[in-house]
């Protein structure tokens, strides 16, 4: 699962061909022992959990980078290489 961004200890990944369990475009987040899956278009938490502060950072980042995330999603579903997406600063 390629890492597409890292910021403030938050690792953002996207699976290739990962549209079977969660049909909508989504990303996988890891922060320490926490894991979560977020829908790209709405920023909604689909599964897992994050601490409140990190969840807010991820939700803001998704909103800012939505177009880039959706472009990566199309690449991922087609089995193509993903590009890195700028982190929050």
Label this structure with key terms.
89 residues; alpha+beta; 5-stranded antiparallel beta sheet; globular
Please give a structural write-up:
With 89 residues, this protein is of the alpha+beta class. It has one domain (3-77). 28% of the residues lie in helices and 28% in strands. The protein is built from 2 helices and 5 strands; from the N terminus they run βββββαα. The protein has helices spanning 52-64, 66-77, and strands at residues 3-7, 10-13, 26-31, 34-39, 45-48. It has a 5-stranded antiparallel β-sheet, with helices on one face. Strand 1 (3-7) and strand 2 form a beta hairpin. The longest helix is centred in the middle third of the chain and has 13 residues, at 52-64. The N and C termini lie far apart (24 Å). The mean pLDDT is 92.
Protein topology:
Layout: E1 3-7, E2 10-13, E3 26-31, E4 34-39, E5 45-48, H1 52-64, H2 66-77
Antiparallel strand pairs: 1-2, 2-3, 3-4, 4-5
Helix- and strand-based class?
alpha+beta
Taking the sheet with the most strands, its summary is: 5 strands, antiparallel
Question: Strand arrangement, largest sheet?
Answer: 1-2-3-4-5
Total beta strand runs: 5
Helix content: 25-40%
Fraction of residues in β-strands: 25-35%
Low-confidence stretches: none
Overall form: globular
As a whole number of angstroms, the C-alpha radius of gyration is: 12 Å
Distance between the termini: 24 Å
Summed up, the domain count is 1
What pattern of helices and strands is seen along the backbone?
A: EEEEEHH
Number of helices: 2
Mean pLDDT: 92
